Amino acid sequence: QMIHYKIIHRAYLYPRRLHQMKIKDNPYCDFCAGKTIGTFLHMVWECPEVKHFWENVSRTLSKIIGVTIPCTQRLILLNDSSKLDNQQPACITSRPHSSKLYNKMASSTQKEIDLTVDSMISGDFGSFQIKEIKGEGVCGLVARCIDLSTNKDVAVKISKSHLSVTRHEAKLLRDLRHVSKDKNIVEFITSFMYQGHYCLVMEHLDQSLFDLMISRRCKPLHISHICYITEQLLVTFKELAKRKLIHGDLKPDNIMLVNHKLEPFKIKLIDFGLSTTVRSVLPGYVFQPIGYRAPEVTLGATFNQAIDMWGLGCVLAFLYMSQNLFPIDCEYEMMRIITQIKGMPHVQQLKEGLFTNLIPFQLLEAEKKKTMQFFDLLNQLLHVNPAKRITPEKSKLLTFPDLVKYYTVIILFKAFNKLLPSNVQKFFFFLLKRELTI
């Protein structure tokens, strides 16, 4: 029953066949918006003859086998990550993207920031000289500056437009200023307007946990260091829970080391642009980056501060394994791995979720069963007691092809054979024949 997924994501293994189809190439996959070069889905989607064939296949299979396979338009809605940079490899160096909600908050009339090293920016509360551009994103940039009144390093976050989200962050940090030192929250200094850009001045910190992992060449942190980081973050989230605040954007990039040389693994939490109160959130709001997003947020169900605990778990797993626990570029892939590792979401969440119908849980459940069968076979093959180790005869029975899969392949081929042009039929036959041999 996972043929629908496999056909889409295994097609990139056959680039020559795709080239022979002479269909307009597109470097990105419309299914997951990831850097999957040469996927079959975007090839078909660019072909006007078969633009709507996914809807037809979905309806056909629903009638024949009672399994609803979402059409392309619905699957596209699952993804809200931005395109990856062309130079960025798909490994640990792929950063989690902020949620689309953050990008939507950015005004459509953004003003480009024309600032370089040694540029001067000034406001009502002082002047600052830029010494280093630390990073730039959709909504603005962060620079290391010297406060000319105190001659100390500070971090200045400069928005690309007059954003309400930046004002919101300034208000939250101002309210948290008196507890920021003890609760491991970045210290807010001041804010001002500069040539139409809203600027936040904060204490200067060392580097993010993500940058630390890169500098360590993807070597995992020792468990004692992870425990120390965890203890500090729990203090922070305990304070946020008292104030009924949700951070909503927890990821390694938003956890900063204060001074790694003088205070090893002393951290502070930054970026409160998406933070909100529990009573302000509504089902359907999209918080958290993909890969660090709680299932209830993905489903569009009600949520609270517990989503930050899910994000914390994903961060700790990243530090322990030096790679993301869940995929960060495709919401469908993320939910697929979550259901395999942790099981299906609670029935109540599925019922109240606004986006539940966009995720093919029948297919996810089917793949989970096959995965469990595979691990059961491995467990019996690797039994330490040779007398209890499985025999070849029993192994063959456990790995016998699934009849449901076989008939699904046949039904899919018949459906595609009627809907697709002849040059695409040959390619599908090639893929389906391969599936039958697995």
Automatic annotation (TrEMBL):
PROSITE patterns: PROTEIN_KINASE_DOM, PROTEIN_KINASE_ST. One of its GO terms (molecular function) is transcription coactivator activity. One of its GO terms (biological process) is positive regulation of transcription by RNA polymerase II. Keywords: ATP-binding, Kinase, Nucleotide-binding, Serine/threonine-protein kinase, Transferase. It comes from the Eukaryota. One of its GO terms (cellular component) is PML body. The keyword Kinase applies. Residues 128-403 form the Protein kinase domain. The keyword Transcription does not apply. This is Protein kinase domain-containing protein. It comes from Periophthalmus magnuspinnatus.
